[in-house]
Amino acid sequence: MATTDQIRSTVEAYAKAMTANDREAWLGLFAETATVEDPIGSDVRVGRESVGEFWDFVHSLTPQIDMEITGPLKVVEHEAAFGFTLTASVGDAKMRSQIIDVMTFDDDARIRTMRAYWTMADMQPVD
Amino acid sequence: MATTDQIRSTVEAYAKAMTANDREAWLGLFAETATVEDPIGSDVRVGRESVGEFWDFVHSLTPQIDMEITGPLKVVEHEAAFGFTLTASVGDAKMRSQIIDVMTFDDDARIRTMRAYWTMADMQPVD
Question: Looking at CB atoms within 10 Å, which of A14, A45, B62, B116 has the fewest?
Fold first, then answer.
């Protein structure tokens, strides 16, 4: 099983890669057979290729997403749940929301499943 | 399906009943067939009676638990994830931790499943 420190490192690398707009680094954090449900209730993406398409879809809507882990960040067994603040560029404006992601990890601390708790109604314009 | 407001009310009532040490009010928020995994990785309690035994076990360790929802509190579809600060009396001392709970709800906004992300290692003495 991956250690708490390894899982924490994956979560931190995830936020860093998103903010750095580094698709390759971000995608490399997922297991080959990873699933992504973002947000909860949307179609589940299955497999790293589909997760990459999810990245492309999101970035067709907003070119820049800043992701700051604002907590709590909890790692238990092979799972993590963490709160973060997302700031997304939309045209000349910025939208912001707090979000909770829940993930499970494989033995190499790669993301096996990811589910994101947020709704469009949560997004607020940044002054 | 329960509305976002109904689910939010259940979550707030959950924290309030815990802090008020009101076992009956707390237990009444669960569906008859509810499951509880608290913390992640422990045996899953199945059914309201077993969830009540979980309450009794926890309160045999600590007579008073204050539960303040410190966020984020996210409700999506029939699910919720939220961060809170737990303060537990242990003898003359108090221990504190941030925790994330993830819940699903039935059509009456009663808790169907609850999973709690925390470890004993997270608990810190309160000065």
Answer: B62
Contacts of A92 (CB under 8 A, 6+ apart): none
What ipTM is given for this predicted complex? 0.94
Instruction: Answer yes or no: B38 catalytic.
Output: yes
Across residues B5-12, what is the average pLDDT?
Answer: 98
Test B122 with A74 for CB contact under 8 angstroms.
yes
Of B76, B99, B122, the CB nearest to A40: B76
Distance CA A51, CA A116 (A): 13
| pLDDT tier at A50, thresholds 50, 70, 90 | very high
Which residue is closest to A42 within chain B, CA to CA?
B77
Question: pLDDT tens-digit profile of B21-32?
Answer: 999 999 999 999
Which residues 49-88 in chain A show a CB within 8 A of chain B?
A: 71-72, 74-77, 79-83
Between chains, do A118 and B40 touch, taking CB under 8 Å as contact?
Answer: no
Euclidean distance between CA atoms A42 and A36, whole angstroms: 9
Contact, B90 vs B12, CB < 8 A? no
Q: Which two tokens stand for residue B22?
A: 């009101």
Host H or E run for residue B5? helix B4-19
